[in-house]
Amino acid sequence: MGDADGGDGDGSKGGDDEVKIEGTYKLERNENLEEYFRIVGVPFFARKMMLASSPTLTVTYEEADETWCFKTVTFFRTVILSFKIDETYPESMPSGDVLEVKIN
Questions:
Q1: Do 4 and 12 contact (CB within 8 A), yes or no?
Q2: DSSP collapsed to 3 states, 28-96
Q3: Is there a contact between 27 and 43 (Cβ–Cβ < 8 Å)?
Q4: From CA 71, how far away is CA 7, in angstroms rounded?
Q5: For residues 20 and 12, is the Cβ–Cβ distance under 8 A?
Q6: Each residue's pLDDT expressed in tens, for the chain with a length of 104 residues
Q7: What is the DSSP letter of 19?
Q8: pTM for this one?
Q9: Is 86 exposed, middle or buried (0-12, 13-18, 19+ CB in 10 A)?
């Protein structure tokens, strides 16, 4: 995906030298991704489906409850990751495993 300047967010720095990342980002290109998927054992059909998708990432922040939301949309599925900094939250993996994650 593009960097912070590549989306609708302006990528500018706030008063506290914080980079503003809110915005919508669209994948521009993949380099060697198919080879990586092949090496890590992703099956042929799944590889082709993932390479055909063109994900869009939307990043939002709700000041009222201090919650970040990362929404990834592809032709095949939508994944929404919502969390608060310094708080543990469950994250479901495609394998069905659930991880406890904390972002500081």
A1: no
A2: CCCCCHHHHHHHCCCCHHHHHHHHHCCCEEEEEEECCCCEEEEEEECCCCEEEEEECCCCEEEEECCCC
A3: no
A4: 14
A5: yes
A6: 444 444 444 444 445 677 899 999 999 988 999 999 999 999 999 899 888 888 999 999 999 999 999 999 988 889 999 999 999 999 888 778 999 999 99
A7: B
A8: 0.69
A9: exposed
- Whether 82 and 67 have beta carbons less than 8 Å apart is answered as yes
Backbone angles phi, psi at 53, to 5 degrees: -80, 155
* CA 30 and chain centroid, separation: 15
51 CB-near residues (< 8 Å, 6+ apart): 30, 33, 34, 37
